[in-house]
Amino acid sequence: MLRNIAVRRALLLGVMLQLFQQFSGINTVIYYSATILVMSGASSNKAIWLSAAVCTANVVFTFIGIVSVERLGRKILLMGSMIVMMIGLTLLGISFIVIDRSSQGMSTTGVGECIAASDSCYSCIGSDMCGVCSNLVGELMCVSNNATELVKSTCEGGKIADVCKTEYSWLAVVGLVVYIMGFAPGMGPLPWTINSEIFPNWSRDTAMSITTTTNWVCNSIISQTFLQLTNAATTSGAFFIYCGITLIGMIYFFICLPETRGVSLEHTEELFSSSLTFIGLKTGLKRKEIVDNEVD
Q1: Residues 6+ apart with CB under 8 A from 108
Q2: Per-residue model confidence (pLDDT) at position 295
Q3: Total-model pTM
Q4: pLDDT tens across 187-217, in order?
């Protein structure tokens, strides 16, 4: 299968579609949407309901993709999808910067291992080991989540909080919804749609197995590394990284993805058999020739 240059190019494109779909951060949003909203200052109960709204937006905007895919074509829809996704990821990154800068300062220095996280409420809850203790007069102190019952008894409600009060948690909600609005009609379904179209019949089963495996391996990697990434690069940094990966993917697909709308399964191999390097940029006339021949 790999000896055929057209199939080899199509397979690389199919793998990249699945890889960039996952590395754009979609399953961090789906799996961790409630966690992201709690990080932004929403209460746990509110975060659950807001994450349900994000998932509802995913369903609604998927139908837009169903309606648009034949009207706009695969490539235009994918490019537009990734642009909106980058806007959403940028909003998420900016929202956490704003939340961090507007976060309440600690009234007193933290205790033990939480001293280093005492700059602000947000930096305190950003540490896995620490939480915020608000005493009866409203003073904040960063303390260990494993603090003694005596320490906890001095905190409001007898609990160590993992949420910071902020007026800007709505920014994160907007970022999540915009991201899903971009992903659902394009980058969500199109990797599967395009992969079902670009392989000739004799190689489709093996090629589809490889691209599907790529999707699930990348899914596992991205979902297991999100919390570690937020600790290493901050929450805003993590979303900016996903935005950068999405930008790289968009450039790659602009160059290498041919438009397959109107081309039958029997002739898609011809789109990748050109000797030209930049397939996505230079196969417009080739596609028109194929479609015209099929109509004749």
Answers
A1: 139, 140, 141
A2: 47
A3: 0.82
A4: 999 999 999 888 888 888 999 999 999 999 9
Give me the residue label for tokens 């417009």: 284
Give the side-chain half-sphere CA count within 13 A for 134: 13
Give the span between the Cα atoms of 282 and 263, in whole angstroms: 16
Checking if the pLDDT of 74 tops 70, the result is yes
Structure-token match 């793998």, residue found: 15
62 and 185 Cβ atoms separated by less than 8 Å: yes
> pLDDT tens digit string along 219-253?
999 989 988 898 888 888 999 999 999 999 999 99
* Contact between residue 287 and residue 258 where contact means Cβ atoms under 8 Å apart: yes
- Residue 67: what residue type? V
d(C-alpha 144, C-alpha 142), whole Å: 7
Nearest to 128 by CA among 115, 137, 117: 117
**What token pair was written down for 281?**
């940029």
How is residue 146 written in tokens? 């494993």
pLDDT at 151: 73
Buried-exposed string 253-277: b where 16+ CB fall within 10 A, e elsewhere: beebbbbbbebeeebbbbbbebeee
Task: Output the average pLDDT for the chain.
Answer: 81
Beta bridge partners of 131: 143
CB 2 within 8 A of CB 203: no
Enumerate the β-bridge partners of residue 134. Answer: 140
Q: Report how far apart the first and last C-alpha atoms of the chain are (Å, whole number).
A: 31
CB environment 230-247: b (16+ within 10 A), e (fewer): beeebbbebbbbbbebbb
3-class DSSP state of 25: coil
Buried b (16+ CB within 10 A) or exposed e, 183-212: bbbbbbbbbbbbbebbbbeebbeebbeebe
What is the model's pLDDT at position 104?
Answer: 64
d(CA 170, CA 97): 13
